[in-house]
Amino acid sequence: MSKVLSIRTYGDPILREAARPVPAMTAEIRTLIDDLFATMRAAQGVGLAAQQVGRSEAICVVEIPAGYDVEDENGPRLNPDIPLALALVNPKIVEESDETCSMEEGCLSFPDIRGNVERPWSVVILHLGLDGKPKTTSLSGFFARAAQHEIDHLGGDLFIDHFSHVKKLAIRSKLKNLKTETLEKLHAI
Ligand SMILES: [Zn+2]
């Protein structure tokens, strides 16, 4: 049975820590993947990284609605060979397109904060498959964006780092309040 874990918010130091590579696929790792999916679905997100539930393994999950994996409404899926629910273990971006795209993003660790982030349109990711073997996955469009956002988390990088200077100034007090709230909660435990 998978568990819904509590989501760490901005200000929690673990969000700024780089994840540790997973040495091998074990039952424990599979359970963590199941729990990440359960937690992400319960929060109605499209992706979640291990640090967001207080873990340090280099694991993230992405699950996007089929309707997001299209270029045009009623068009074919952009990534038809990739399951819409994707777990990435030890992911590393090995190739990215020169073509970029800017789009508004949110993050489960930043309730009420959204902002535009420019990212490569497509990426090639090297990672471990669920069978423990190295695997290469190519993604484009929104799917690629969601995966890049999650892989950033594993390096301790956050989507706000990509915001423009003006946007960073505009959310400064919101961020400060969120950090204070998070730290108060952490110290209350
Ligand atoms: Zn996020």
What does this structure look like?
By secondary structure, this protein is α+β, with helices and mostly antiparallel strands. The protein contains four helices and seven strands, in the order H-E-E-E-E-E-E-E-H-H-H. Strands 1-2-3-6-7 form a five-stranded antiparallel beta sheet, sandwiched between helices. Strands 4-5 form a two-stranded antiparallel sheet. The relative contact order is 0.19. The mean pLDDT is 96. It binds zinc ion. The site of zinc ion has 6 residues, from helix 2.
Residue-averaged pLDDT, rounded? 96
By DSSP (H or I, 4+ residues per run), the number of helices equals 4
Contiguous runs where pLDDT drops below 50 for at least 5 residues: none
Terminal CA distance reads 26 Å
The percent range for strand residues is 15-25%
The neighbouring-strand order within the major sheet is 1-2-3-6-7
The largest β sheet comes out as: 5 strands, antiparallel
Features:
7 strands; two-stranded antiparallel ribbon; globular; alpha+beta; 28% helix; single chain; 189 residues; binds zinc ion
